[in-house]
User: What shape does this take?
Amino acid sequence: MTDATIPGDLREAFDAYERAIVANDLDALDAFFAPGGDTLRGDTAGLLVGHEAISGFRALRGGVPPREIAQVHYRPLARGGEAVESGDVAQESTDGDVALLVSVSAFRGGGRGLQTQVWQRIDGRWFITAAHVTPRTPALDRTIWRSVGDPFLQGAWEGPLEGLTVAVKDLFAIAGFRIGAGNPTFLEEARPEKATAPAVADLLRAGASLRGIARTDEFAYSIAGDNVHYGTPPNRAVVGALPGGSSSGPASAVALGHADIGLATDTAGSIRVPASYQGLWGLRTTHDLVPRQGMLPLAQSFDTIGWLTRDGETLQRVADWCLSYDGSASTENVYGASGDDLPWRFLVPEEILACVEPDTRTAFSRLLAALAASDDPPPFRAVSSGDLDATFTAFRTVQGAEAWRNDGEWLRAHPGAVGPAVAERFRLAAQITAAEEAAARRDLEPIAAHLAELVDGAVLIFPTVPGPAPLRTADVDAVRAATLRMTAPAAAAGLPAISVPLLTVAGAPVGVCLVSRAGTDIALVRLARRLAALMAGAAG
Assistant: This one.
């Protein structure tokens, strides 16, 4: 059905635009959207502003499933720049005319969608100046979830985490299910797990229920958050930006409100980076503090388990339970150090701060100034964190050697099964010699000792990452290199690190990272909450 009053040239433009969508003709689609920085396009993921941002989104989205237009409704909004009175009838189009089109899509595979567009006639052509798309209701977002339920697995009916839901990164064993590691070939060949990983079981015993198994970058060997097989999970905070990885699935699930807790892993920043990119709280725990049984490893010398939440109070509840004798069924470490508060003293590592983008450095400087002017000002001191290039080189060597030992045999047996970026990392990892690995381990010892000495009586504070999440169309190699130089030191030293969403740069979140001495994880969350409350008071 079509409104009879729609001008003929507008209907022709609409039909041509629809053909371009079905054909995924990117050049034609770009030409239909009005040029400049004011053009709008929104959907369930958020709002894109400006022709350039919309064009970048289209380059990555791909085409739409086969569909027909079931209805088109037309309402004139203005003629030649003047508003149209209600009830006016259509007339021949002239420059400055503005019209609203609302169309209904019927998908051949089932379901319906809705498109709302504002068209304007400029220089004899109709252009879209604003659009909003409501897609058909999906069964699940496959970029975020591998399997999902309501709940997927029920937790205990009572406990300190009762009522909370968990997105589990697809590296953890769940009895009766397979580990997929972000790769469909690996998932297909995997066997169902016989027992549930302790890190998962601890949350279930506390009353949390599993919402589902969430996506990861392939074999957790990335910090971008993309996946060539399943797509890129959305970034709730910055439309069209990378979500951060490799814990991208749990992070996006938590940020979008699909789950309250993301159970994740952090080897070189895979909790802290997505937390920063999406405005979440993210805790990397002390190495070996949380049992890693039932977790597919990447590099055992640095792999650690942690959690992502939307707020500090929830993260505190999780840490209090999972890092205590009452909470963990299998942990034997003594966590007495977390019973005492950490010192209200901060160290700013100069070399790490040098990796930060200028706008982020400015925002961080404002945060330090606000803290210094607060009613409870902590002392600050600049310190040297050491040679970050040397730290990262040694870290990457040990990480690569262990990653190849863990996954090399499978990769040799399955050529072409992983995406190009991950394949290249494994290719380089395969070339690391035993002598190079041994030398790198020796190089890490004084680096770890220096960092441990720094946090003996104070807490490191710095931006978690260089800046806001890069767009999915950006060249991220330079950003990745700077990011890993900022996140690797804490991992190399096995120290707990938390990312707190305290900075805003160009409207996007950037985390502030706090690093404390080993075993003080619970106290570190308390300190982060104290800092966040102080900053909220200063802003208010």
Remarks:
- Residues 331-336 have pLDDT under 50 and may be disordered.
- The chain has two domains: 8-134, 145-539.
- The longest strand covers residues 67-79.
